Amino acid sequence: MREVRSFCRFCMPFCGTHVTLDEDDHIVSVRGDKEDLMTSGYACMKGLQAPASYSAGDRVLHPLKRQPDGSFQRIPFEQALDEIAAKLRVIIDRDGPKAIGGYRGAGAMLNASAMGMVPAFLGAIGSHKNFSTYTIDQSAKSISLGRIGMWNAPRDPLATSDIRMMWGVNPLVSLATSYFDMTNPTKRLKDARARGMKLIVIDPRRTETAQYADVFLQPYPGEDPTIAAGIIRIILAEGWEDSEFCAQYVADLDDLRAAVEPYTPEYVARRAGVDAEDLRKAAALFARDSKRGGAAAGTGPSMSPHSNLSDHLIETLNVICGRYQRAGEQVVNPGVLRARAPQKAQVLAAPRWWEHGYKSRIGGYGMLGDEMVSGIFCDEILVPGEGQIRAMFAHGSNLANIMPDQRKTVRALQSLELLVNIEPYMNETSKLSDYILPTKMGYERADLTMYYYESLYALPYARYTPAVAATPTGSEIVDDWQIFWGLARRLGIQLVFDGVPLDMDSEPTTDSMLAVVARHAPVPFDELKSYERGHIFDAEPQYVAPADPDCTDRFTVAPADVVQELGEVFRESPTPGAYLSNGETFTHMLAVRRVRDVQNSCHRNVPAIRKRMPYNLAYLHPDELVALGIVAGDKIEIISDAGSIPAVAESDPTVRSGVIQITHGWGGLPDDTVYERDGSNTGLLISTDRDLDPINAMPRMSAIPVRIAPMKLSVAAE
Question: Is residue 364 part of a domain?
């Protein structure tokens, strides 16, 4: 056996690891690398279970083609590409390029040589039907920046922050960024607290992160805009805003002041279920007592109703308190793999991107960057007419499991003429696909650390790894990019990868693809490869430049659509314990919960993880169990206005009363699920026919009104 160094690719931190290989170069064990420059030995349960993930019994080792009877038959890789290309040509000739779509999940986003291949391929054929998990995750961040405007320099970095406000995010478990250092997050939080940084956490559960909070607000799910508006009102009423910054850079502070006036502390406390004095403490600690560091939201607010308004108001807290770097301050992470851009102490006026350019045929939604919004994904497939999607590539995304409104999603996928799943496992989407094209997993391919979102790192860090593990013996699996390059060559189209046209006559290598990604790095690619543990590229620091003399752009914190929605939210007047939804009354709010063991639908096939978590439990406060007349371990039914799912109740005193929490990403296909074997899919509780946010069509994926009933029969018995 031998040990090599590399980094994990199961999620965004890319933790540095030691990988033990056997004589066939297959993975035996993984442990964190204590000398790693960023993660300092940290590795989570998922990363440590890489040997079991790579050798899982449901891993697909050869390209497969669906047969007329629904079974799958092995097919050579080149033949699969020939057949897929032929089908694409027929569909494009008949229906046009907009009949072809693609969807990227984490399996694509965490792969530097292939992350950009779906948009590159669709762009080459002339299709806008590019989707990703971003628009059912935190697309509200794009909307808030698009309506407020953007400061042309970073927010205050962690190293100099004396406050952080974390809103519906639990980085110690989820490893989410949310304006925090995701590398070894517990250590980073403890270090920041030790030097005096204060912490405000707002979450329906007293999370692991909330244990470190100076002020903790525990509201009902979905009340994020109410609380944010209330905090803003207190700050403005007390004069705690950065008045100098606001006078120079904010265009409509008086309009904001008027819009939040109804959100008194007493109103917010009564509606959101928080203490009015705690609300004042949070406002004072953030705005009066602290001067550096800001607020940011995670998926909690972003997956709940009024997601765009929530994120807008949370970012508005940063604006009115001036929580951005100023001229002369060092940019802690100016980036490594992306081209450096000037960073200036000035505002870029709200661009409102979605109001320009291509609009979807369903709902007239605009593009967010180069992506369509995922809330209309199913309708783009199911609704007939010009531009109806007839062929879909699912790249590293288990669409049949993770998309809201699971029955509708499955119906849409089954209606396609061609569904290609680019995926290592026989997951729910694979079972519906016409072709399954299995790909190499992280340690089996060369790679770079995150490049597209590298600004999320606390330092200018980048790292290359070669492929360190062999692919399974006898397998026929490829690097993801080879699929799209091979199809493009067969169709006679030119791929432009990360802005660089690829040679379509001679197949590139994975390293040559990575060299394209790294072409802006401060050192040649070969030198970048020579740093075994990566490198922090801080030899040429960057500083925030003064504003352009003629720049007059200002933030717009109270545009008309935001003010209108604030009024609508105020008039909702929900009643805890008697929530109205689609003409029905419900007793509880369901909030989706993150856990250490799984990431979305991944890692359910790992024996050690399934032993710890055989299915997704439903967590309730002990008092709720008593009130419902159930005990931990009882089977219950969770009922929404869209459907119902079974679950096993679990007692958790950290969950606030009136709330039930359950993890998403579980369950099989709707008509082939046994809870004790598969868990339950929360997508069955969600409808995408209504309750979509404006602008980004964000479905209501958390803060879902539900009621709870004991189950008379086990799922297995049924």
Answer: no
How far from the centroid of its chain's Cα atoms is residue 121's Cα? 23
**CATH number, domain with residue 624:** 2.40.40.20
- Rounded to whole angstroms, how far apart are CA atoms 454 and 14? 11
pLDDT digits (tens, 9 = 90+) for 150-174: 999 999 999 999 999 999 999 998 8
DSSP 81: H
> Has residue 197 been placed in a domain?
yes
| Domain that residue 33 falls in | 2-54
DSSP character at residue 387: T
- On the question of pLDDT at 178 being above 90, the answer is no
Residues 298 and 201 in one domain: yes
Q: Is the pLDDT of residue 465 over 70?
A: yes
HSE-up of residue 288 (Cα within 13 Å, Cβ side):
15
Specify the pTM: 0.96
Q: Which residues contact 79 (CB under 8 A, 6 or more apart)?
A: none
Q: Which of 681, 575, 588 is nearest to 640 (CA)?
A: 588
- Of all helices (H) and strands (E), which one includes residue 28? strand 27-32
Domain boundary, last residue among 281, 299, 327: 327
Asked if residue 309 is part of any domain, the answer here is yes
DSSP secondary structure letter of residue 285 = I
User: Does residue 167 contact residue 179 with C-beta atoms inside 8 Å?
Assistant: no
Six token digits for residue 294: 């800001």
CA distance 108 to 620: 35
Instruction: Tell me if 19 sits within 8 A of 30, measured CB to CB.
Output: yes
**Identity of the amino acid at 658:** G
State the Cα torsion 34-36-40-44 to the nearest 10°. -90
Percentage of the chain beyond pLDDT 70 is 99
Same domain for 269 and 147?
yes
| pLDDT reading at 402 higher than 90 | yes
pLDDT in tens, 564-585: 999 999 999 899 999 999 999 9
Say if residues 696 and 308 touch (Cβ distance below 8 Å): yes
Q: How is residue 537 annotated by DSSP?
A: -
Q: H or E segment at 2?
A: strand 2-7
Whole-number pLDDT of residue 717: 39
SS3 206: coil
Mean pLDDT of 86-93: 98
Long-range Cβ contacts of 494-497 (<8 Å, 24+ apart): 494/124, 495/117, 495/120, 495/121, 495/124, 496/120, 496/123, 496/124, 497/116, 497/117, 497/120
Q: Where does 434-587 show beta strands of DSSP type E?
A: 435-437, 447-448, 461-462, 464-465, 496-497, 500-501, 535-536, 542-543, 579-581, 584-586
DSSP state of 59: B
Instruction: Provide mean pLDDT across the span 596-620.
Output: 90
DSSP 575-621: -TT-EEETTEEESEEEEE---SS-BTTBTTT-HHHHHH-SS--EEE-
CATH number of the domain that residue 28 is part of: 3.30.200.210
**Matching residue, tokens 């590398």:** 183
Number of domains in the chain: 3
Q: Output the domain CATH number for residue 286.
A: 3.40.228.10
Q: pLDDT digits over 243-274, tens only?
A: 999 999 999 999 999 999 999 999 999 999 99
Is residue 716 predicted with pLDDT exceeding 80? no
Q: CA torsion angle for 463, 469, 472, 474 (degrees, to 10)? A: 110
